[in-house]
Amino acid sequence: MRIEQLEYIAAVTRFGSLRRASEQLHVSQPALSEAISKLERELGVTLLDRRRSGARISAAGREILQPIVDVLESVGRLRAAAGDQLASRRQLRIGTVNAGTASLVLPAVRAFQTQHPGSTVEIRNLQQDDIEISLAEGALDLGLINLLDGDDVPPELDFTNLLSGRPVAVIPAAHPLAQAAEVTVDDLRGERFVAMRSGYIMYRFAHRLFGSRLPAEWHSTDGAEMGKMMVAEGIGLTVLPDYSVIGDPLERAGLISARPIADDPTTVTMVALHRRQARVPTVVRDLLGHLLTRARQPPAEATA
């Protein structure tokens, strides 16, 4: 039994249908239904009456609804107490994918330390799944991840959009393709390619982009920062969110450049995640504010 399964039942009761609950929780309706079905099998009770017209809480579900609400309220009090402890120790643990670390996360942390001079900050570079699990378990206070079109955020986490952009081809500045207005998929197929390892969204994007016809020479690495360094060294080309490249020190130094990918409409978004709770700890709220301020600056100003 997981807390979010109880939250799903409470949401269906509150909003009156699986569809409305899934919209409010930002989770797909099939995933919501399957999670409730697993809870029903575990408890041996039918919690929802599923009909062609929609799903509603069952009579048996209504009988155990109050204990479910009691558990969720207790969890809320526990999370609030943990938030008070975080505020008192003034320590912040951040998990982030590499994209945007240099241009977004580090300046925001610097501003946060000016506001909270006695604070301590721990930054961990992790994959998206690890960030989401660590947030849910309380091992992280704030997480930054990238999402492709259609990706969902776990319902137990709240999210704030920070940056939105497009995947771009990352090319050594001296490479002939750096002179082109845009780069085609076939251009990329004909070059040595540096892919992110499985678990990163740009790994998924690269496989979606190339389909079954991958580049003949395929290197791989952990995270955008190493990928950009490999490009700068001439090891290969890669694809990353534009906001991960524009303003990067390697781009400002004239070692790498970014070019649009022809005929690719994909949108990629960086979001900040934190646990869903009644009262967000002050230090989390303050760092989130600095991230938003930095994200809203024009590129030329943000890289100054």
Protein architecture, described:
With 304 residues, this protein is an alpha/beta fold. The protein has three domains: 3-63, Arc Repressor Mutant, subunit A; 90-158 and 271-302, 3-Layer(aba) Sandwich (D-Maltodextrin-Binding Protein, domain 2), CATH 3.40.190.10; 167-260, Periplasmic binding protein-like II (D-Maltodextrin-Binding Protein, domain 2, 3-Layer(aba) Sandwich). It has helices at 3-15, 18-25, 29-43, 59-63, 65-89, 101-115, 128-137, 185-189, 201-210, 224-232, 242-245, 249-252, 282-295, 299-302; strands at 48-51, 54-57, 91-96, 120-125, 142-148, 157-165, 167-172, 193-196, 218-221, 238-241, 256-260, 268-275. The strands form four sheets. It has a five-stranded mixed beta sheet with strand order 4-3-5-12-6, with helices on both faces. Strands 10-7-11 form a three-stranded antiparallel beta sheet. It has a two-stranded antiparallel sheet with strand order 1-2. Helix 9 (201-210) links the parallel strand 8 (193-196) and strand 9 (218-221). It is globular, with a radius of gyration of 22 Å.
How many beta strands in the DSSP annotation?
12
Please name the CATH architecture of the largest domain: 3-Layer(aba) Sandwich
Give the domain tally.
3
* Strand residues, percent: 15-25%
3D shape:
globular
CATH superfamily heading of the largest domain = Periplasmic binding protein-like II
Q: If you compute it from the alpha carbons, what radius of gyration comes out, rounded to the nearest whole angstrom?
A: 22 Å
User: What fold name goes in the CATH topology slot of the largest domain?
Assistant: D-Maltodextrin-Binding Protein, domain 2
Strand order in the largest sheet = 4-3-5-12-6
What is the string of helix and strand elements? HHHEEHHEHEHEEEHEHEHEHHEEHH
The residue ranges in which pLDDT falls below 50 over 5 or more consecutive positions are: 300-304
Helix proportion: 40-55%
Q: What is the structural class?
A: alpha/beta
- Largest sheet, strands/sense/barrel: 5 strands, mixed
